[in-house]
Each structure stands twice: as C-alpha cells, then as structure tokens.
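Quick one: co-fold with magnesium ion.
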Amino acid sequence: MANAIELIGITKRFPGVIANDNVNLAVERGEIHAVCGENGAGKSTLMKILYGMQPPDEGTIKVNDSEVKLSSPGDAIELGIGMVHQHFMLADNLTVMENVILGSEPMKRGIIDLDAARQHLVEVSEAYGLTVHPDDLVETLEVGERQRVEIIKVLYRGAEVLILDEPTAVLVPQEVEALFDNMRDLKAAGASIIFIDHKLDEVLEIADTITVIRQGRTVATVKPDDVTAHDLAELMVGSELPSPQAGESTVTDDVALRIDSLTVHDADERSVVDDVSFEVRRGEIVGIAGVEGNGQTELINAIIGTDSPRSGTISLFGADITHASVGKRREAGLAYVPQDRHQEGLLLDAPLWENTALGHHTRPPFTKGIWFDRVGARERTEQIRRDFDVRTPNVEVPAHALSGGNQQKLILGKEISSHPKLFVAAHPTRGIDVGAQAAVWQDIREARFDGLATLLISADLEELIGLSDTVLVMLRGKIVATLDPAEITPRDLGAYMTGVAVSEEAS
Ligand SMILES: Nc1ncnc2c1ncn2[C@@H]1O[C@H](COP(=O)(O)OP(=O)(O)OP(=O)(O)O)[C@@H](O)[C@H]1O
Ligand SMILES: [Mg+2]
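Sure, here it is.
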C-alpha cells in the first residue's frame, strides 16, 4: 500500500537534548498508526514537526510520496494534515459551527457565507458519522462531544491525515469506545490516523501498526497481533506493566477533611456543586469519579481555595478553612496537583527550580530567614528530579522545555515531597508513561501508609478503583453513589458516571 506520510531520518535537537535522533516513521494510507514511547521519548516533537509547528534539524518529510517542506501549520493543512491537540483549543462561548469555521470562513461577496458553512459542516459530520449540533454552545458540551468538534474542525479543512496526541486521556471508557468507532469510520473513508496513547491496551485494540520510540529513536514497528501489552512496555521502557493496588487498608478514624453540605454556584447562579458532604480520614484515599463537567473541578477549587462556596463548610483536622486563603491552607498541610497543569501548575517560562518553589515559597527549604533561598530551591529540585525521574538536562531549563509527562512528574514531586497532610490530586498520572505511573502509585501508597489523607480525582478508572478505599461518583453536582472499589469494574463505574446505573440503583 502507498504511504500517506513518510518521515525519514528526522533529527531535532534542543539545548542538552536530542528529542528526535534519526527517526523513521511510515504511515500507510487508510491505517491507524500508534506511536508509543515513554515520557520524553520524542513523540510530540515528531508530531509537531509533521504539523509544521517546528522545523526539523535534519531529515525528510514525504506526503503522498512527494518531498515537502513545512514552515507552518498552514502548510500542513494545505497538504491535508490536521492535528488535534491534547489540550482542547475550542472557544467555550462560541457555537459548534462558529468554532469549526473559525479561521477558514467561506466568503461570499465579502461576508461570511453561513449557509455554505453549515452545509459543509453537515456534510462532513454525516460523511464520517460524527454527530454534532451546529448551534450548541461549546461550553454546554461534554468532553467526548468537544473532541468530536475538534476532529470535525480538522476534517472540515480537508484533512486526510489526522494526528491525535493523547486523545483518550480525558475520556471515560464509553467515550473511548465512541472515539474508536469514529476512528474506524474515518479509516474506512480512507483517512490515515497517527495516534499517541500511554494506555497500551487501547493501543492494541485500535492500531493497525505500532511504532515504538525510545530516547528519540525508532526501536520497533510492530503489528498488534504479534505483541502483548507486556511486550510493548518492555520495548518502551524495559519494565513490567504496573497495576494499581490499594493493598491493606490503612484508614484511621481520624478525620482529615470534612466537607459538609457544600454548595458552589457558577457565574449564572447554577449549583455546580450541590449540597455535597463527605469525609476523608488519615490513611485513606477517597476517589471521585465523574465525567468532566459534573462539578469535580469546582469541588476541588473550593477545597484548595480558588473558588468560594455559596454555603456549607470545609474543615481540615477540625479547623474551619471554608474561607481561608490558598496560602493559609497550604500552611495547614494541604498539597494539590491541579487539573490543568498548564494554567495553574507551572510557570512555563520560569526555570524548574522556581517552579518547585511555587506555592511553597514561604517555608523551608525555600526560605532562609526572611529570604528566598535559591540554593535550597535548587537542591530540592535536584532531589525531586532524582526521586521522581524527571528527565531534563538540568534544573535551569524552563518548564516548557519538558515533555508533557515530565512536567507532570515535576508537579507531583514537588507536592508529595512537601510532606502534606491532605493531598488533593486531580488526574495525577495523566499523560505519564507506564513505568513512571507505577512509581507514582507507589509514592501515593507509601504516603498513605504514613497517614496521608488523599482525595483523588481521575479519569483513569483503573487507577481510581485500584488506589481508592472508597469511590464517590459525582453527577450534575451531586454525589450519586458511594462504592466499594473491591466490588466494581471500570465498566460499572462508567455506567454510574454517565447516569445509566443510578436509576437502576434507585429503583
Ligand atoms: N521547546 C523545547 N525546548 C527544549 N527541549 C524540548 C522542547 N520541546 C521538547 N523538548 C525535549 O525534547 C524531548 C522530547 O519531548 P517530547 O515532548 O517530544 O516527548 P514526548 O514523547 O511527547 O513525551 P510525553 O509522553 O511526556 O508527552 C524531551 O527531552 C523534552 O524535554
Ligand atoms: Mg508528548
């Protein structure tokens, strides 16, 4: 079969790192090609090169067997290559149609031809079986629907090659299946898809071909029928496939966090967290399951202090912190991993050692008397780099120079190493490779043994079930189920999260 894309001998150097070292990747027309590799292996860099966002230092790019030069995403789009980024790029306050046509509006006598745009949108969505409602506001859509809009946006521009960088990280199992169905339809219609994912069982289910990258080099191109998840993990990182296990209960009677009748309103005065009550004890991990957009974000924000509740109370070891500042909460022993590492967790242009001090700068090792201690901050960062295996040439590089997974490891490392009493972790292993994930689970488990109380929010249902002592399900702002993780599967949990199982329980 003919190749849609061929990357030959691609090399890309950054200061102190060779991100891509003579990489080869050939994608046949009409196939789903997965690219796997550990954090920092060079996957996103390779995709950015193919999408014209970064020029390679060496190497050749061929599209439909002709050599091309890409100096911008515009060039890539022109050649039928589209990319869906992991962070959604849609404008919340615009409709589906406005988002899709943004930047490529069809014009008729100087004005936007909305009829033509609508017709084209409907054609694209029908041709690929991607159902969307053109007039819906994007902010009202669920995550899976937003992703469909992103994919349609790319197809609307005529893409025949789609790059999806970690598209399943934010989806529940039901949504992953819907995405995979869409991918199969796209493939049947002749599109080629390049797809990055750290969940190896998903890769084996959907991919026609798998290319494994290790430390910037192509190490293998295999067929899913010829390998197991175990083989893939070994090719990637040379380590075993981990599975999260809570082990023996360490739950005490000592209440660390108490949430009582908590209600949070959004800007339109709707209750996005609606009369929620629960407790987390020392030594306990309480997991919260829910499709994004059901109030988990607002609940966490109220607990960490970036959102103020309308009513109800939050207490930490008996002290009312409902209206305490973020700084006061941190000093009382709260640590958190934010939902969106790009917006809240990192100063992308600041060096790593400044990032580790972020939020902790009022306490040792970051202070010496009243002064900020740079030496202490650098030492702590070096220690986190070692303990959490943050792959970086040194601690002076800016945070944006780390790969997605390594940014996440830095954030986790700085929070866990602050020895908190309450740890609020939103998607702690999102985007982290299988080897590093095992290490993170081990760290959380060890801290739990020492009495740490953890509130875990995760879209990875195996992680949620495997680590938690109790799982709460949030739907439309309310806790709709309290489940024993020993008795449920990810599929069951997905049913509760989408509201399918709740009515059964109630009836
Ligand atoms: N703009 C940049 N400046 C400096 N170094 C960079 C830059 N972008 C990437 N790198 C480095 O290139 C290497 C490859 O990064 P890349 O983002 O491609 O990894 P990845 O395979 O996508 O990893 P992940 O699974 O964590 O997303 C890493 O060592 C990273 O630190
Ligand atoms: Mg990446």
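If it helps, The mean pLDDT is 89.
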